[in-house]
Design brief:
alpha/beta; Rossmann fold; 6-stranded mixed beta sheet; 11 helices; binds zinc ion
């Protein structure tokens, strides 16, 4: 996902450099199509070469006068010398978009983050983890609980991707703030340049069905982003319809493959651990609830537990 966006942006940088060079060249041709301009330039350049050939200094009165008169003629026709040179490229990356040490250059960073947000289905300009304000929560007990979980997530995002628990489950009833927290986590990571793909469980399940019913050569492409995004967030697991041979099978496949690649997956759900076991299967339950690799956070309004 990131590679795809970077490739497009760096291609655009290249096209822009070529376009700028073409525009400058077209301006030069138009300006020197005016006889007065080309004559003034020729007179100045001829005198300059003659001085240089004789080993003289270009810093003399005659040349200054000729140069000024050339510039005045240019100005008379609405040009200046700098019009004929394309704007200098970014001094850090030379207009390539990537710095010599392989990082996204500051000159395309905003465009990169914006496009990453579009690809991840998350608006990067919204609420991030560090924006959490305890005083905005009226219930003081709940405010303390949320402060604890936002603090935990901020640490997780700061350490990312060097985190030990690759699966985070945010479990709790509707309205307890799970999706909001997961979105804030995604946004925080996207702003750091990571791909944090946010998907409802319904959309995820539909995508898996599409994959399952597509010819084999197309399946890798369909699964590519959910398989390779730095973080995948599946929102509201349990709300999706169950398709035979698809829902459980692909969810397990994605969880296992992503863990094997060392990639993180976050799941929000209204289901408890026991309900996950009965709605899915033992292996999915174990992936989501195994304390060595997963963290199961229970949101209970004012009763928040980090298990
Ligand atoms: Zn640059």
């Amino acid at each position: 996902m990131k590679d795809r966006i970077l490739r497009r942006l760096t291609d655009e940088c290249k096209q822009e450099r070529l376009r700028a060079a073409e525009i400058a060249e077209a301006r030069r041709e138009a300006a020197f199509g005016v006889p007065a301009v080309s004559e003034a330039q020729r007179a100045y350049v001829k005198a300059l070469h003659s001085v240089l050939l004789k080993g003289g200094s270009p810093d003399n009165d005659e040349l200054r006068v000729l140069k000024r008169s050339y510039e005045e003629v240019l100005a008379k026709y609405g040009y200046k010398e700098s019009d004929f040179e394309p704007a200098p490229p970014c001094p850090i990356c030379g207009g390539k978009g990537i710095t010599p040490d392989g990082k996204v250059c500051a000159c395309i960073r905003d465009a990169f983050i914006c496009e990453l947000g579009v690809a991840c289905d998350v608006d990067p300009s919204g609420f991030c983890l560090d924006d959490f304000d305890e005083s905005s929560v009226a219930d003081k007990v709940q405010a303390r609980a949320l402060k604890k979980v936002y603090g935990f997530m901020s640490d997780y995002a700061a350490k990312f991707p060097s985190v030990t628990r690759r699966v985070l489950v945010l479990s709790g009833k509707t309205g307890t703030g799970k999706t909001y927290l997961a979105s804030a986590l995604a946004r925080t990571l996207i702003n750091k340049g990571y791909g944090a793909l946010f998907m409802s469980a319904v959309r995820f399940n539909s995508l898996m069905l599409k994959c399952h019913t597509s010819p084999y050569p197309e399946r890798d492409r369909i699964l590519y982003d959910v398989m390779h995004a730095d973080m995948l967030i599946i929102d509201d697991l349990g709300s999706e319809p169950h398709y035979k041979n698809v829902t459980c099978e692909y969810l397990l496949l994605i969880l296992e493959e992503r863990s094997a690649k060392g990639l993180s997956t976050v799941i929000t759900t209204n289901l408890t651990a026991e309900e996950i076991l009965s709605a899915y299967n033992e292996r999915i339950y174990s992936r989501m609830c195994d304390k060595r690799a997963a963290l199961f956070l229970t949101f209970g309004g004012n009763d928040l537990r980090l298990a």
